[in-house]
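pinging the channel bc i need a second pair of eyes. not urgent but kinda urgent?? the chain im working w is below, pasted from the shared doc
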Amino acid sequence: MKIHFLLAATAALAAMPLLADNHVLDCSRGQSLGQALQNASWGETIQFTGVCHDGVTIQVSALKLIGKGTAVISSPQTTLAALTVNGAHLVGLSNFTVQNGLYGLHVMGGSGVTLSGITSTKNAVSGILVENSSSAYISNTTVSNNAVNGIDAENSSSLSFTGNITTQGNTAFGLDVGDSSSASLSAATFTATGNTLGIQIGLSASCFITDPASTLTASNNFTTGLTIVSGAHMVDFGGTIVASNNGINGISLFSRSGLDMDAASLVTAASNGQDGVHLEELSSLNLFNTPAFSGVPGVTTLIVTNNAQNGVSALLNSMVHMFNQTTITSQGNSIFGIQVDNGSSLTLLQSTVTGNTTDISMTFGSRGEFTGNSIGKVSCDATALIRGDTGVTCPH
């Protein structure tokens, strides 16, 4: 009887996906990451290596999943996410690749995850999708060559970025923040390049650059670098935004959207295929810095140079407004340095608008107020109103 019991126990142990040396699960040895996660307990740490050919799910909170060496989760089919986190909190994911799934990583059901050292690539929809009131803290992560979006946040979810983030070569958006979701950058270097559209903040979503240590680069994308649309809003509090060498506009604001630049922030939109900064449909660009309130000395600065059409275009009742320690430099643009049309308004302070084909154009009920600027050629029609130091009276 004892012999039969020992034989049965030995056979059962042989059938189990035992951990390799140093408690690292090795998918190359036939061990199952999916089974390990299914049996995981609250607060457990699972380390793994090798290429795991299964879509896996985490549903237990406070779990840590850590890759060692070459660690890859590769979905067996493009209808399944490579890794799903559903309804779990305090989940830590680090140092592995997710690929070949519907999504590389799908965070859902109010989950909360922290990502570090993750690569998500070659997925059928998005590299990382965070939805349904979920949150993701993301650092030192690369998302590339996905069939739709790189990183996508939807349905009142949140993204927090720190460290180095790259989203590259995705067929639609490098980063899409939509449907009342939010994104923030803190001590982050975020780069969106080689996507069809670099970054979209839309559908009442928000984005906040929190500090001077953060840089957001949306350059060399096929269409526009950064788009803020449909009631969305972005605040740059002392950080740097670079939107250059994009196929259409560097930065676009549409449909009652806004970009606020504060605390000596710097935005550069140069060498784009159309406009550096383009506003339409009751959208607004606000530049301001009051050091007594922001706590940051210096000048909030917008630089728009060498764009194939205009430096800044404000159309369809949009607004460019400047207050206190701010400046705009608009030079070398092929048509207008600043264009204001169709009921839009421009407040221009302490700025340089020179060396464009026409430096400032005011048409069709537009309004301008100018103080302390260096401006070259100003053009306005009979419906425009201008006051200040341009040397030009409008209407003529």
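so The domain at 53-388 is CATH 2.160.20 (Pectate Lyase C-like). and The radius of gyration is 26 Å. — does that match what u expected or am i reading it wrong
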